[in-house]
Specification:
With 117 residues, the chain is an all-beta fold. Helix content is 0%, strand content 56%. The termini are far apart.
Length: 117
Amino acid sequence: QVQLVESGGGLVQAGGSLRLSCAASGRTLSTYDMGWFRQALGKEREFVARIDWSTGNTYYADSVKGRFTISKDNTKNTVYLQMNSLRPEDTAIYYCYVGYRLTPHNWGQGTQVTVSS
């Protein structure tokens, strides 16, 4: 079992930036992916970005490509989501996950991101 603790959400104006962090503990991550989904009010949870822990390869949803960057710090077992050029439609609860590709095994508690116009 992996425990995930997220931080970094908040309120920002459109065009601004935020960085989310997700620290993992409890199990080795070398064979897993870590990443982020988000869920806006009244909508289904959707994939945002993921990183292959062993290769460092990254993958993004088309809606965030070129604006968001996912990265990791192996020494801290932490994944980051740098979000630039934020838009009101990026407003959602962002959930960190660990799993295989797009199949989450564990979720973080979620962090609210609100982008005002």
